[in-house]
Amino acid sequence: MRINKIYITTLISFFLFLTSVAFAQQAANDSLLHLLSTNIPDSSRSLILDRLGLSLMTSKPLIALQYAQQGLEVAQKAKFPKGVSRNMNRIGAIMRVTGNYPKSLKMHLDALKIAEETNDLDGLVRIYNQLGLFYSSQKDHEKAIDTYFVGVGISKKIRDKNLEMTLLSNIGADYAFLNNLDSARIYTQSAYELGEKQKSKNINVLLANLANVNARAKNYAISLDYHRQSIPYSILIDDYTTIGNTYFEMAEIFKKTGKLDSCLLYAKKSLKVSQETNNIQSIYGSSSLLADLYQKIDVQKSYTFYKQATAAKDSMFNQQKAKQIENVSFVENLRKQELIDSEKAFKNRQWSIILLSIIGVVLLISVILFRNNRIQNKANRLLSKQKLEIELQRSKAENALNELESTQMQLVQKEKLASLGEITAGIAHEIQNPLNFVNNFSELSIELADELKLEFDKIEIPEEKKEYLEELLHDLTQNQERIHGHGKRASSIVSNMLEHSRSSDGEVQITDMNKLAEEYLSLSYHGMRAKNKLFNADYQLIADKNLPPIKVNQQDIGRVLLNIFNNAFYAASQSINPSIKVITKLEKEYLIIEVIDNGKGISKELQSKIFQPFFTTKPTGEGTGLGLSLSYDIITKGNNGKIEVLSEEGKGATFSIKLPLNK
Fold it and tell me: How far apart are CA 362 and CA 373, in angstroms?
C-alpha cells in the first residue's frame, strides 16, 4: 500500500521561494480598493493598481490583468513613466503565469526600456527579477541566473536589501535546478543572512529553504537543525501552513536516515497541522508517508491513511482542473478582446479607405466639372474651336476614368496583401523554433571555438601548420558570429511579425512525439546515472520520421515516458550488458511507442498485476507500485489510448504505448 513520492516531492519538498513575490508583503485588497475610491493623484493610483495586479495574478489572473491594464492607461494618460514600466512589468508577469510567453517577454523588455530611459533603478531591479523568472520558466536557468545578478548589482547600488534578498533566493533556486548544490547553498545562505539583518517576516521561509538545499545535498543533520529553527518563527506569524510542510520534510529526513519512530512522530504532527489549515498538498504527503510506515505494522491504520491520501489527491486534482479551466477562460477572454480590437482596427481602416476613395472621386468629379465649365465658357467665346475642345475634354475624362479604375485595382491589391500578411505570419510562426535553434547553437559554437583557441595555444604545433590552423579557427569564429548576428536580426523580424498573431496553446499542445521521447529517454538515463555513478547502459531511439504530431498534454505524457524508461533501465541493469531500445511507429489509427529492455523479464502471473496500484516487483524502498498505475490511467483514461506489456522470463520485456491519432 505504498504511495508514489514523486508527486509529493513536486508539490511540497522543493524551494519555497520560486515565485516572483516570494518575499513581498501584500497589503489587503480591501485596503487597496479603499484607497482607489479616494481622491488621490493618478501617479499613486497607477502604482496601487499594479499592487492589486500583484496580489491577484496567481489566483485570479484575468482580474489582475484588468487592474494592470487600467494602471497602465492611467500612467500613460498622466505621463508617469514609473507607473507605465511597473504595470507593463506586471502584465508581463501575468502573461508568464498564464503561459503567454511571447507577450510576456515583450512586455518585460518594453518595461525595461522605459525604466532605463528614465533611470528608474528600483524599477530596473524588479524587471530583472521578473525577466529571471521568465527565463527560469523556460528552463534556461543559466540565463536566469545571469539576469538575477544584474538585478543584484543594481539593488546593492540603491541599497534595497529586500529586493537583493529576493534575487539571491531566486539565484539559489536556479542553481538547485542545475543541481549545483554548493552554489545553491551559498546564495540561499546569503539571502537568509540578509533577511535576518532586516528582521524579515519571512525568516521562517528562508530557514526552510536552507533546510531543503542541505537535505538535497544529504546534509541531514544540518537540514534538521534549520527546520527546527524555522518553527518558532512560523508560530510567531501564525504561518501553520509552513509548519505543516516543515514537519513533513523532517519526517522524510528521519525516514531516509532510518529513524522510523521520529519519522512516524513528525508525519503525524504534519497531518494534524495540515488538516487544521486545510493544506491539501501536505495532507496528501503526510498521509501517504503514514500509510507506507504502517503497512508492515498495522494494515488497518495503513489503509485508513491511504484513504485520506486518496481523498487529498482527488481534491488536488479538482483544484488543478479548476485552475486549468480558469487559465483556459483567461486565454479565451484575452483572445476575444484581441479579436474585438483587431476587428475595430480593421473596420476603421476600411472606413478610412472608403472615405478617402469618396473624397478622391468627388475631387476628381469637381475638377472635371470645373474644367468642363471653363471649356463651355471658352466654347461660347470661341465657336470655331468647339470640336477640338470637346475632343480634349473627352480625352481627359477617359484618363480620369482610367485613374479611378487604377485606384480600385490598388484597393483590391491591398486586400490581397492583407491575406498575404496572414500567410507570412503563419510562415514566421513555423520558422521561429528552427531559428531559435540556429541562434542557440551558433552562440554555443562561438563559445566552443573560443575554448578550442585556448586549448590550441597549449599544444605544440609546427610553425608552418600553426598559422594555417589559426586562420581556420579565426574564419570559423567569424562565420559563427555572422550566423549568430543574422539569426538574432531574423528573430527580431519574426517577433515583430508575430506580435499580433500569436496566442497560447494552453495545456494540450501539438507535440512531436519523437522529440518528446528523445528528451525523456536522455533525461531518464542521466537520472539513473545521477543516482548510481556505476550505472551504464546502451540505449537507442529508432524514430519513424513520418510520425505525425498529435495533441497531448506534454507534462502527462512525459511523466508516462519517464516512468516506463526508468523501469526499463532498472530491469536492464540486472543483465550483464544492459540496453534498452525505444521504437516509434504508426499502426492503423494509433501512434505507438515501444520500449524494449534486455532484463530478466516478467512472468505471466505478474503481468496481470503490474498495472494495479501499489503492486511492485522492486525491493522495499526502491519502488512504490504507483508509477505504472498512474501511467495506465493517463494513457487509457486521459488519452483514450492503450498500454500493454509483452514479456517472457529471461528474455526481457516490451511495453507498448498506443495513442489515438484522432481523439
Answer: 16
Shortest CA distance to 23 belongs to which of 195, 187, 227, 177?
195
Three-state secondary-structure class, residue 653: strand
Number of helices (H), then strands (E), belonging to the chain: the values are: 23, 7
SS3 440: helix
Task: Dump pLDDT digits (tens) for 239-261.
Answer: 788 888 899 999 899 999 989 88
- Nearest-CA neighbor of 451 among 477, 486, 489, 431? 477
Buried b (16+ CB within 10 A) or exposed e, 75-109: beebebbbbbbbbbbbbbbbbbbbbbbbbbbbbbe
Q: Is the pLDDT score of 467 beyond 90? A: no
pTM equals 0.46
* 530: confidence class by pLDDT, cuts 50, 70, 90: confident
Q: What is the pLDDT of residues 139-183, one digit of tens each?
A: 999 999 999 999 999 999 999 888 888 899 899 889 988 989 889
Task: Please report the sign of the dihedral spanned by the C-alpha atoms of residue 360, residue 361, residue 366, residue 372.
Answer: positive
DSSP designation for 218: T
Residue 457 has, within 13 A of its CA and on its CB side, a CA count of: 5
C-alpha cell at 21: 513575490
Q: State pLDDT tens for residues 596-644.
A: 999 898 888 888 888 888 777 777 666 667 788 888 988 988 888 999 9
Segment holding 588, helix H or strand E = none
Q: Which residues contact 68 (CB under 8 A, 6 or more apart)?
A: 49, 50, 53, 87, 90, 91, 94
Task: Enter the C-alpha cell of residue 251.
Answer: 519526517
User: 104 CB contacts (<8 Å, ≥6 apart)?
Assistant: 92, 93, 95, 96, 134
Q: What are phi and psi of 466, to 5 degrees?
A: -60, -45
**How far is the C-alpha of 120 from the C-alpha of 400, rounded, in Å?**
58
**What's the rounded Cα separation, in Å, for the pair 523 and 584?**
18
Sign of CA dihedral 26, 27, 28, 34: negative
pLDDT tens, position by position, 451-462: 777 777 777 777
- Report the SS3 class of residue 551: strand
Closest to 309 in 3D by CA, of 4, 638, 662, 641: 4
Of 61, 52, 48, 54, residue with least CA distance to 23: 54
CA 200 to chain centre: 30
- Which cell numbers in the block locate residue 239? 504561518
Are residues 660 and 640 in contact, defined by beta-carbon separation less than 8 angstroms?
A: yes
The residues pairing with 593 across neighbouring beta strands, listed in sequence order, are: 584, 657
- Sign of the alpha-carbon torsion through 356, 357, 358, 359: positive
Q: In this predicted structure, what is the pLDDT of residue 522?
A: 92
3-state secondary structure 116-139: HHCCCHHHHHHHHHHHHHHHHHCC
Residues 171, 125: Cα–Cα separation, whole Å: 14
Alpha carbon separation from 514 to 546, 550, 560, 597, 624 (Å, rounded): 10, 11, 14, 19, 28
DSSP type of residue 576: S
CA distance 160 to 434: 41
- With a CB cutoff of 8 Å and minimum separation 6, the contacts of 118 are 81, 82, 85
Residue written as grid cell 494513457: 635
Give me the helices (H) in 498-553, please.
Answer: 513-531
Residue that the C-alpha cell 501499489 belongs to:
614
Q: Could you tell me how many residues make up the chain?
A: 663
Q: Judging by DSSP bridges, how do beta strands 579-587 and 550-553 pair with one another? A: unpaired
